[in-house]
Amino acid sequence: MVNGKCVTHLLGMDAMTNKLIPLSIPHLAGKEWAYIKDCLDSGWVSSVGPYVDRFEQETAKLLERKHAIACVNGTSAIHTALMIAGVNNNDEVIMPSLTFIAPANATRYIGAWPVFMDVDDKYWQMDIDKLKTFLEKECTYTAKGLINRRTKRIIKVILPVHILGHSVDMDPLMRLARKYGLMVIEDVAESMGALYKGKKVGSMADIACLSFNGNKIITTGGGGMLLTNNSVLAKRAKYLTTQAKDNPIEYIHNEIGYNYRLSNIQAALGVAQLEHLNKFVGIKKTIASVYEVRLKYVDGIRLPQQAPWSESIWWLYTVCIDPKKYGMSSRQLLQCLESHGIQSRPLWCPLHLLIPFKNAHQYALTVVEQLYKQALSLPSSVQMTKKQQEQVIKAIESRGK
Ligand SMILES: *Cc1c(COP(=O)(O)O)cnc(C)c1O
């Protein structure tokens, strides 16, 4: 107690504002107000407008893709990507079991099924060696396409998810996809701005999908985008996301379409955010390096590794807790940090353990469940202060004491 007040340096509360230290919140300190005001002043508030075009063009340029289609969220972008990739009812899509649920849900929207791949223990991304063994040993090429012998379903797409700001090993993945005639959809929701062997993550697959949800590196409130170099696919994506409008005057729709377009107001937010992406990436890297330097001395904490091929944006800094060595489990540490006003989160429950996906094919999953038990993501917001990060580190070092 100091002057009758609880000492807050270990409590994680910002002493000035009494605010919680959040996991990942948006940073809106650029031209957001100005651009949104421009939308209101001009009356361009809905699903077409100059900011939508600008946001698409600038994002496409940034990720070195020819075409971009803005969508209402990342999940709708993935749903659209799967449809234009030719995934049909009862087809299969290979994806990691360790990811946010969006790609698996989007697959089920079509009536298709995920095949859940393991992740590697080192970088926690889709395990390409296992993917190769699966394709070689478990699948057969037929006139209808590549058949999963276990489920008898046709495999159409590989959907790597670049998790936590890092990247999947794309070169061998793309070689496998080409060899087996599969389309590749990259989920770049968590790794916008990351590099793979110097190339932009999101520039390598047939289609890439982004999310601009509030917890992502840049946000439009809610939003997403589909990117591709293929003009036929791009045209089809635009068609499906605008209610499959064939004749807008006579209201002729020859297919089932979706109302998936991003509004001009949201795109305005996106254009403003895009102006700060590089800065945000720099700050995330600094946050990660501070955690790394300080937490490597804490017994029982395994730090995230960066693969030689990857330049991560460190979207969420995630550590693994060995309960025996550290003295408490990841979930106990979560509770302990929570009581100090610090928000942390486990990774996603592996998708093959979830009720809607329990009948999906799970291939040789040995790493994901252990990782799920041990992993904990720490506060990684761009606007986190040095002092706040110090509070997080102190709370971890002191094991809540
Ligand atoms: C956030 C996220 C998405 C998309 O989520 P939306 O909330 O629909 O924008 C997709 N995949 C991953 C891995 C994500 O983290």
Give the names of the bound compounds: pyridoxal-5'-phosphate
Quick check: average pLDDT?
94
N-to-C CA distance: 16 Å
Alpha-beta content class: alpha/beta
The number of distinct helices, counting runs of at least 4 residues, comes to 13
Work out the strand percent. 15-25%
Portion of residues within helices: 25-40%
How many individual β-strands?
A: 16
Q: How many strands, what sense, and barrel or not for the largest sheet?
A: 10 strands, mixed
Low-confidence stretches: 1-16
What radius of gyration results from the CA coordinates? 22 Å
Order of helices and strands: HHEHEHEHEEEHEEEEEHHHEEEHHEHEH
Shape: globular
Structural account:
- The chain is built from 13 helices and 16 strands.
- With 401 residues, it is α/β, with parallel strands linked by helices.
- Strands 1, 2, 3, 4, 5, 6, 7, 10, 11 and 15 form a 10-stranded mixed β-sheet that branches. It has a 3-stranded antiparallel β-sheet with strand order 9-8-13, with no helix packed on it.
- Bound molecules: pyridoxal-5'-phosphate (PLP).
- Pyridoxal-5'-phosphate binds next to α3 and α4.
Short description:
The protein is of the alpha/beta class. It is built from 13 helices and 16 strands.
